[in-house]
Amino acid sequence: MMSTVTRANLAESIYSQVGLSRHESADLLEAVLERISLALESGDSVKLSGFGTFSIRQKGRRTGRNPKTGVEVPILPRSVLVFRPSQILKGKVNGEAPGEDDAE
Amino acid sequence: MTKSELIAELAAANPHLLSRDVELIVQTIFDEIVEALSRGDRVELRGFGAFTVKQRDARVGRNPRTGDAVPVDEKRVPFFKAGKELRERVNLVKNKA
């Protein structure tokens, strides 16, 4: 059965691994996510070895269409966030031990 | 930004913590996400984004050099979808610049 891991679960792991209070564990989790967000906001990419890389990709202007009415609407240039998982993470979701990943 | 830069920034902002504790915190977070995805679970962090595992069916690929057909097994791939808040933050600054 697939379940969902949330902030509360991650904060609980920090609490049991590091020995900070529950409150501080939750604050630190938030601080980590905020630092990553700030870097991405400034256009920087974030490279977490063993996990993956978050980077910003620029999308050019293109013409879209309202699928209901068929009216053409311009889609303005925008920046989107992309995540590239590391080979280790890709291997692990396929049940491989780290290191035996197939090069693609 | 790399993982060690992230740890250094957090350590500087939290002088009451040991640097190795900050390192353990960062490592714990990403290890837990990897473990969850390995179990096939999803990780949802509101405002930031959600990590999920997508199933890719087996298909016949092609060696781009020789054009030979090569069978590709089914596999699972990690996927991240940015949350609304982060998506908007990333887009806003770029458009102002």
Automatic annotation (TrEMBL), chain B:
One of its GO terms (molecular function) is structural constituent of chromatin. SMART domains: BHL. GO terms for biological process: DNA recombination; regulation of DNA-templated transcription; regulation of translation. GO terms for cellular component: chromosome; cytosol. The keyword Transcription regulation applies. InterPro entries: Hist_DNA-bd, Histone-like_DNA-bd_CS, IHF-like_DNA-bd_dom_sf, IHF_beta. It holds the Pfam family Bac_DNA_binding. Gene3D superfamilies: IHF-like DNA-binding proteins (4.10.520.10). SUPFAM superfamilies: IHF-like DNA-binding proteins. Keywords: DNA recombination, DNA-binding, Transcription, Transcription regulation, Translation regulation. NCBIfam families: hip, PRK00199.1. This protein is one of the two subunits of integration host factor, a specific DNA-binding protein that functions in genetic recombination as well as in transcriptional and translational control. Belongs to the bacterial histone-like protein family. HAMAP family: IHF_beta. Heterodimer of an alpha and a beta chain. This is Integration host factor subunit beta. It comes from Ameyamaea chiangmaiensis. The lineage of its organism: Bacteria, Pseudomonadati, Pseudomonadota, Alphaproteobacteria, Acetobacterales. The gene is ihfB.
